[in-house]
Design a protein that fits this description.
This protein is an alpha/beta fold. The protein is about 40% helix and about 15% strand. The protein has 15 helices and 13 strands. The protein has an 8-stranded mixed β-sheet with strand order 3-2-1-4-5-6-7-8, with helices on both faces. The chain is elongated and about 75 Å long. The protein starts with a helix and ends in a 5-residue tail after the last strand. The mean pLDDT is about 95. The structure holds ligand SAJ. The site of ligand SAJ has 20 residues, from helix 9.
Length: about 425
């Protein structure tokens, strides 16, 4: 313990980060930036090659990290490989591989099993940290795959796209030690990178439940906002006004309704949590069902607006504004926009899309709206708050606008307008 702790504290520890995605790559960069010798390991040769060359292989819009990557590679503190043998003399191995769900909504631990198998023979001397999100009790299974005295901790990532670096440094860290010694060692490591935040040391099971439930909790809150939107739509009220007035009551903080929940975390963490239970997690799973059904509600709104404008879906060109799942980012993973688009295509519409943040989708908005029959705001990008609808009305073939984010204050003149949750 003492020698390893010493190496962590004086930053002479060699660290291997397994999985160079949006969790592992920022972590590897920050650790290298703090002076550690870091190796990234990824099964994808292209990914490992790009990182070794100092080229940011993920979303281009992430602040600061691409430049930091170039610097730590140039300084010789970060390198990448596909070969697990790099773990041989590692002092710390941090596993950051994806833990998605399969089509049955069960955990898909293929990448995790591969990573654990890959590091197993080298893990005897190292501290092993799992940052991947895990269903409760999975760390125990991982410990069984490693050797009996393994120093293992589950420290679930808490970062989100667009602010990876900030989250890594400033989010409170939950440190689940498989043993008290492992928890203490992991805390010593994270102390080297965090700024102005807390580390909380607990056991692995608690850390697993905290991570999966914190996202399940957010999913339930969003589902409640979405349910309120559907109630208001049904009864002829405006959800944005109702929400604002509900939130004047102390202790109420209704989130914003929208076209559904996207991203890699909220769409699966409930399922990871539920997979470990011997009883149904009814409220959490109902929330999932509500959020998963929101794209259908959006398509119904679009079809109703087209009907009002007397346009048959088969004759309609619909422009989707916003493909990213989260405002201000270029991340399209599990985006509700994809569901909305594919359902509109199934309904017979011709679908175009525009997103100012996503490469490949960010041509010219006027071109995307030219001769279109309808526009549908799906992502709440700030750029969409200032659009000149009367101007676009002149270039559109028909003037139909659907807003799923409550960012168009008033129906533009001459438009058939529908807002999610706006029954009037
Ligand atoms: N959404 C709504 N209404 C809201 C808030 C969000 O419809 O009021 C939708 C978004 O449009 C998006 C989805 O929910 O489609 C998820 O949004 P999010 O803001 O929760 O962003 P995520 O999925 O990137 O969540 C991450 C989570 N972080 C991790 O899993 C490590 C989550 O725990 C954080 O709370 C969240 O970021 C955050 O607040 O940054």
């Amino acid at each position: 313990m003492d020698e390893l702790k010493q190496r962590i504290e004086d930053r002479s520890a060699k660290i291997v980060v397994v999985g160079l995605g949006y969790v592992g790559l920022p972590l590897a960069i920050v650790l290298a930036d703090e002076g550690f010798r870091v190796w990234g390991l990824d099964v994808c040769e292209d990914r490992a090659g790009a990182v070794s060359a100092g080229d940011w292989p993920l979303w281009p819009k992430e602040p600061d990290l691409p430049e930091m990557l170039r610097q730590v590679v140039e300084s010789g503190r970060l390198d990448a490989t596909t070969d697990y043998a790099v773990c041989k003399d590692a002092n710390v191995i941090i596993v950051c591989v994806p833990t998605p769900i399969n089509t049955n909504k069960d955990p898909d631990y293929e990448a995790l099993s591969q990573a654990i198998t890959g590091i197993a023979e080298y893990a005897r001397r190292a501290l092993v940290i799992i940052e991947s999100t895990l269903a409760p009790m999975t760390t125990e299974d991982i410990a069984q795959m490693l050797w009996p005295g393994v120093r293992l901790a589950h420290c679930p990532e808490r970062i989100s796209p667009g602010s990876l670096l900030y989250n890594l440094r400033h989010m409170p860290h939950i440190i689940g030690g498989y043993t008290a010694e492992a928890g203490e060692l992991a805390a010593a490591l994270y102390l080297q990178i965090v700024k102005d935040t807390e580390l909380y040391i607990t056991d692995c099971l608690t850390a697993e439940i905290v991570k999966t439930f914190e996202n399940g909790y957010r999913d339930v809150q969003i589902a409640l906002a979405n349910e309120l939107a559907l109630i208001c739509q049904d009864l002829g009220a405006d959800v944005w006004e109702v929400r604002e007035l509900v939130n004047t009551c102390p202790g109420r903080d209704v989130l914003k309704p929208g076209p559904g929940v996207g991203g890699a975390c909220l769409t699966k963490d409930t399922w990871l949590l539920a997979s470990a239970l011997g009883r149904p997690a009814e409220l959490l799973l109902t929330a999932r069902a509500i959020n998963e059904a929101m794209p259908v509600e959006v398509v119904d709104l679009v079809l109703a607006a087209l009907r009002e404008a007397k346009i048959a879906p088969a004759n309609a060109t619909v422009t989707i504004l916003g493909v990213a799942y989260r405002a201000g980012t270029s991340d399209v993973r599990e985006s509700p926009a994809i569901q909305v688009m594919s359902r509109l295509i199934k309904a017979g519409c011709d679908v175009r899309f525009y997103d100012p943040h996503c490469d490949g989708y960010n041509g010219d908005i006027a071109e995307a709206l030219n001769e279109a029959d309808a526009a549908v705001i799906v992502t709440g990008h700030p750029e969409f708050e200032r659009l000149n609808w009367p101007g676009f009305g002149h270039i559109m073939r028909h003037q139909v606008l659907v807003d799923t984010r409550g960012i168009v204050q008033e129906a533009p003149e001459g438009f058939v307008f529908r807002g999610l949750g706006r029954g009037r």
